[in-house]
Amino acid sequence: MAFAAITRRDKPMPDQPIPVIFIHGLWLHPLSWARWAEVFEAAGYRAAAPGWPGVPDTVAAARTNPERIAGHGIADAIGHYAAIIDSLPAKPVLIGHSFGGMIAEQLLGQDRATAAIAIDAARITGRLPLPLSSLWSALPAFRSPAGRHRAVSLTAEQFRYSFGNFVDRDESDMLYRRWSIPAPGRPLFEAADPGFSLHPPPRASAAIDNHGPLLLVMAGQDQQVAEAVTRLALQQYRSAHTIHDLIEFPDRGHSLTIDHGWRDVAGACLDWLYRHGM
Length: 278
Known about the structure:
CATH architecture: 3-Layer(aba) Sandwich
Mean pLDDT: 83
Strand content: 5-15%
CATH superfamily: Alpha/Beta hydrolase fold, catalytic domain
């Protein structure tokens, strides 16, 4: 899809641009959304990509100070983004990837967004099963129970399994060097078993009634969030009385928001927002 096609808008934007908040997942720095933010700004939105609690402004600082990232769980991240949203003049569109997608769903369920796009969204046990592939991706955190309280880094090989399995090795290694940062281990323990926490994280709502539209975006070759997980999520959401759509990229992996094909995904998200008048 050409760059011009995904930045063109067929009707004027409102006087006040619609805010768009991009929410990253584990092991990627929020700056990995920079190209998306530029495209959405060019399309007339006001874009921002704030990091999770404790995530520094640069990739280098995140790698140098992993202790700032450690210890934050899912509820912490949801509260952090809720406070950011509350400071905005209008409800935003939320676009999240992986755990960021799950956070976007939660915030939509709290009626804090006009719409949400969840790309290969993580799920919480109790609603949907956590596939063995997801557990394997999280293995660095599970090597010790203490991993729950630490920041956990991926090696280049682990990143390739979890993110870059459907791009060539050179591209996977480049993405790893550019965007990979340590991630808090706590969300992985919470997702695998909420019993690990005295205060379990909220579950993704299966009935977002009377709230804004939700788009689920699925990578067919994702080894971190299996295709079956997203399809089951869609079945649950379709019991609600609002718009829930699915777009599949069958030949993409978990790196679909940052690899060479990111424009296709961004374009599909923009097209969906246009169709629903946003």
